[in-house]
Write a structure and sequence with these properties.
alpha/beta, Rossmann fold, 6-stranded mixed beta sheet, 4-stranded antiparallel beta sheet, 9 helices, 10 strands, binds adenosine-5'-triphosphate, binds magnesium ion
């Protein structure tokens, strides 16, 4: 079982770049810690999804090093072994669900990993997400908010050590946003995963983030604690961003 250890980074990014001419993501150094929600803020095209794809090992970096759980991965395309890969999951802005029932979508990751369904554990996930009465329903008939709640249930069912969220609440109403936020925060508190949460909304970052990173045009403007970022930002650009005077 994975133990949270705040003194040791679960990811360490060193001199990491990803080049898509003319765009270049350039990360001199970021450490991510288990048990923390790391929020990525920044305007469209800043490189937020690009960074998430590197953390998910969907693409190799152009240069630099990604240390994940103590092992180094670089531009050669080498990725973690299957067990480590399956400890990482992503929830996207638009849920990609199987054309099947809610129940079968949620338990699919367990099936993939050859793990049995623990009814109590299932209930502890579907109940707070308000999915108990929908388990038999076909996913294609769900509302957007319901579908996104199913996507989160499916991500949490196998207790991922890394939860990557790419604007999961962008299309949702306030009630659904609240359900998702409290579910992720609760999961982070109990299981101590590494969470990276991309959002356009700095109010959301303030509600859920332990550390906040502002990206602009592939570069880090500032990485700070929630308090530091919102109360005493180190960079003028961060202040401008929070005042709504930058990018928008
Ligand atoms: N596979 C790719 N090939 C070429 N260019 C790409 C590719 N993926 C991303 N880019 C470019 O990299 C830049 C950053 O894209 P990215 O998707 O990371 O931005 P983002 O911060 O997630 O933006 P948004 O908030 O709109 O989702 C953009 O200019 C984009 O066009
Ligand atoms: Mg994006």
């Amino acid at each position: 079982m994975h133990e949270a250890n705040l003194s040791e980074a679960s990811y360490r990014l060193i001199h990491l770049t990803k080049q898509y001419d003319p765009f270049k993501l350039d990360i001199p150094h970021i450490d991510l810690y288990a048990g923390q929600i790391f929020c990525l803020l920044g305007p469209s095209g800043a490189g937020k999804t690009t960074l998430l794809r590197l953390l998910n090992f969907l693409e190799p970096p152009t240069s630099g090093e990604i240390h994940y759980e103590g092992r180094m991965y670089g531009p050669d395309g080498n990725v973690p072994d299957i067990t480590r890969m399956r400890s990482i999951t992503t929830v996207f802005q638009r849920p990609a669900l199987l054309n099947d029932t809610v129940y079968r979508n949620i338990v699919y990751p367990l099936k993939l990993r050859g793990q049995p369904v623990d009814p109590e554990h299932l209930d502890a996930i579907v109940e707070p997400l308000g999915l108990t009465d929908l388990l038999g329903q076909r996913c294609k008939t769900l509302s957007g908010g319901e579908a996104q709640r199913v996507a989160l249930a499916r991500a949490l069912i196998f207790k991922p050590r890394v939860l990557l969220l790419d604007e999961p609440t962008a299309n949702l109403d306030p009630r659904n946003i609240q359900i998702l936020e409290s579910m992720v925060r609760d999961y982070a508190r109990r299981q101590k995963p590494t969470v990276v949460w991309i959002t356009h909304n700095h109010f959301q970052a303030k509600r859920v983030g332990d550390r906040i990173c502002l990206l602009e045009d592939g570069n880090i403007v500032e990485v700070n604690s929630r308090e530091g970022f919102f109360e005493q930002p180190a960079q003028q650009k961060t202040r401008d961003f929070l005042d709504g005077n930058l990018f928008y």
